[in-house]
Design goal:
The structure holds 2 protein chains of 2 kinds.
Chain A lengths: L1 H22 L7 H8 L1 E6 L8 E2 L5 E2 L1 H13 L2 E6 L5 H6 L5 E2 L14 E9 L1 E6 L7 H4 L5 E5 L3 H9 L4 E5 L4 H8 L5 E5 H7 L8 E3 L7 E7 L4 H16 L2 H9 L5 H4 L1
Parallel strand pairs in A: 1-4, 1-5, 8-9, 8-10
Antiparallel strand pairs in A: 2-3, 5-12, 6-12, 7-10, 7-11
Chain B lengths: L6 H6 L1 H34 L3 H16 L2 H11 L9 H26 L3 H9 L4 H31 L11 H12 L2 H29 L7
Helix pairs in contact in B: 2-3, 2-5, 2-8, 3-5, 4-5, 5-7, 6-7, 7-9, 8-9
The chains are: A alpha/beta, B mainly alpha.
């Protein structure tokens, strides 16, 4: 029996140790130097769907955040390598040094900023509610009825704001990209869904027309930003200057007008 | 290196972890009970001589073993509502686990029956026993012993597979671990707590297997 207990303790230790080694951060001075020496910018992305990061008709990764990052690498004079993670793997990937920078439709929140450093925002978005057309939920108020099931993405800002806006609702968190929330509502597994307005309006284009009814009310206003590690001050300063520059010369506006504020991208991708 | 592990956070989330642990146990338990029932039925159908009864059971075993559990889970969760069947996710999870493991259980039991020496079939047949009597009194008692170990193995696989249910918003051990990782950005603490939970269930099953073999020792065996 003691033999059994010993093996148990040993396996528990093994599990704990295996965990710690993966989380060891390789702190390095001068991330920007490293990137230039390597000739490669390693970017943690997610394939959450249009308009920020998705696989287009030709099977190529593209989207607003992707194009902006390509521009960043071009200005830096290096090539881009994308590391594709699930939403909840993005910050750990950055923290563990697997990626130099995180480019996703991630809101700069105070909690996340305790772990990673956010750049200046490149766009502001807001959370919206939606349901299927022809459902009993005619307005956002209907979705606040007690017991209504509300789909959100696991680890998203909506997961934090939904209990406030829908105190009597029953929240269901789904792991994966934004479309999983739309799928959950379309299939009836949840009655209403909450996600970023820009993501919702781009992603409903993948579904037959009139599948969804998106409510106009903006529940929140959230800044989306790039993130780097706190020990990458050089990269942070450079990225902020990059954002100022593309904002000043109109290249950011061109990107957003093409991807986010219109459905123009649909013709090409 | 263990200094990196923030035990305080794990304790803070202990109520949630405990709930996840109970849910994992409950869903795995019901899932395995369902798998045993499905497996026994499927196995009985595959070894009996009527072809029209055999074909659907063989098809079930083949289709399930050829496709990943994740695909089966998504089919049940996102596909069935299109056919007008809307079930709560916990039920879908249990059904998916039972359906998936049932196919493997059927194969394990079948291999146990096939391991019974041919002479036993022939001897019982010449004693004038009916098919059901032969199975009940001669074949099955001998077939059960070699299947216990692989069945416990299958139960262990099922317990770990149940972590996939976190993908359809079921709160179980893996989901609570993800939640710790996401709320506090402490993936190590979250995953270590999850792993510890699964390890405990594993040792429970192992102890169960040891108990079974102690009480069902063959005469003359150590």
């Amino acid at each position: 029996m003691t033999g059994n207990f010993k093996t148990f303790v040993l396996s528990a230790l093994f599990v704990a140790l295996a965990g710690t080694t993966t989380a060891t951060t390789n702190a390095q001075a001068g991330t920007l130097d490293d990137i230039l020496a390597r000739g490669e910018l390693r970017v943690a992305v997610q394939t959450q769907g249009p308009p920020y990061s998705f696989m287009d008709k030709n099977g190529e990764r593209t989207g607003s955040a992707i194009q902006l990052t390509e521009l960043m690498a071009k200005e830096m004079g290096v090539k881009v390598t994308y590391l594709d993670f699930d939403w909840d793997g993005l910050i750990p990937a950055l923290m563990s040094g697997k990626a130099d920078i995180l480019a996703a439709d991630m809101t700069a929140t105070l909690t996340r900023a305790t772990k990673v450093a956010f750049t200046k925002p490149w766009i502001h978005v807001g959370a919206v509610g939606f349901t299927t057309q022809g459902s009993d939920f005619k307005s956002l108020e209907d979705c606040k009825k007690p017991g209504t099931t509300i789909a959100v993405i696991l680890g998203s800002t909506a997961e934090k704001s939904v209990p406030t806006f829908f105190p009597d609702g029953e929240m269901k968190s789904f792991k994966g990209g934004g479309t999983v929330v739309l799928d959950a509502v379309a299939s009836g597994q949840a009655q209403c869904g909450v996600n970023d307005n820009t993501a919702v309006s781009a992603q409903i284009l993948n579904y037959p027309e009139n599948t969804f009814n998106v409510f106009p009310e903006m529940l929140t206003s959230e800044p989306l930003a790039y993130a780097v590690r706190y020990d990458s001050q050089d990269l942070l300063i450079w990225a902020n200057l990059f954002l100022d520059t593309v904002q000043g010369d109109g290249r950011l506006k061109a990107n957003l007008d093409y991807w986010v504020n219109s459905a123009k991208w649909q013709a090409d991708h | 290196m263990l200094g990196n592990l923030n035990i305080r956070v794990i304790f803070e989330y202990f109520p949630a972890l405990w709930q996840g642990f109970l849910n994992t146990l409950m869903m795995s338990g019901l899932g395995f009970a369902g798998a045993m029932i499905l497996g026994i039925i499927a196995c009985a159908l595959t070894i009996q001589p009527l072809r029209w009864l055999r074909a659907p059971a063989v098809a079930y075993v083949d289709v399930i073993r050829a496709t990943p559990l994740l695909a089966q889970l998504y089919f049940l969760y996102f596909g069935l509502p299109r056919l007008g069947i809307l079930l709560p996710e916990i039920l879908i999870g249990i059904v998916a686990l039972a359906l998936n493991s049932g196919a493997y259980v059927a194969e394990i039991i079948r291999s146990g029956i096939l391991a019974v020496p041919r002479g036993q079939f022939e001897a019982s047949m010449s004693s004038g026993l009916t098919y059901l009597q032969r199975m009940r009194f001669i074949i099955l008692p001998q077939a059960i012993r070699p299947t216990v170990s692989p069945l416990i193995g299958q139960a262990i696989v099922l317990v770990k597979d149940s972590s996939l249910l976190s993908l359809i918003s079921v709160v179980e051990l893996a989901r609570v671990g993800q939640q710790i990782a996401l709320d506090r950005f402490m993936p190590v603490e979250g995953l270590a707590a999850t792993a510890a939970g699964f390890l405990i269930i594993y040792y429970m099953l192992k102890a169960l297997a040891a108990l079974w073999s102690r009480f069902n020792r063959l005469p003359g065996q150590a």
